[in-house]
Amino acid sequence: MVTPPPRLPITFFNRYTDQIEQEEIYGESFLRWTYESRAGQIALALAAKRVWFSKWYGWRMDRPASRAKVLPFIETYRLDPNEFLDAPESFRSFNEFFYRKLKPSARPIDDNSDSIVFPADGRHLAIADVSLADGFWVKSQKMDLARLLGSRELADRYARGSMLISRLCPVDYHRFHFPVAGKAKETTMIPGSLSSVNPIALRKRLAILWENKRVLTEIDTAALGTVQMIEVGAACVGGIWQTFAAGDVPKGGDKGYFTFGGSMTMVLFEPGRIQFTQDLLHHSSQQRELYARMGDVAGHRAN
Question: Which N-terminal residues, if any, form the signal peptide (predicted)?
């Protein structure tokens, strides 16, 4: 009898408790079965990463009956309704609750003119120089920028640039915001499949990031050059919705939201433009994510 490999926990450093914590994974049993068993791999190939599966699941979360999941979800994952702009009872479906807005006071935006802020609530990794990174979540996994960006020219431009990866779990606030102020261009959609972006999946195959559906937005800035922001779709994400208009955007301004499912944003900076915070760099060097909220400081303009 073959002994199955140990189930490694997903841990992260919580900036606010100053502790390493274990992630509570929504749907963990199904996720581990899908990515850690032979039968699950077959199911993944046939259905779970297909766009139709995510659209179907998203449709379910839009149904009025899904509203019954809202209050139990808030209780199970200990969310704070005092942060919500609207009362929990007002949501007409689970998806409407999922992409809820928060009160501005719940996510203050750092006002230092030199700071870069996290674009979303979530668990974050920072890479100071993408070309020198020897692992994302696990050792020996390299980022394929050309496939991620859909452009060899862009990949060459950012080959030695800095990257911030923000992973949103289903329990997180699911709106994403601009990490810097600048002039945002129209978005570019890059089609793809929809696999999970949980570390359980990414430890197996980093290529998920450049195979999944994603949206690319270029932001021209006065002090940081041109910044690329990417939203990555994931399993059971019914959509990536943009709420901004092309043109001048403020740091921390609302950019868009994900409908149901875990998901991810990625921000690419030109070489030598920024300095990430020390706690973010330290934990990222250990392939450990750092939990922080949207609007908090991720780094500063390099001197």
Answer: none
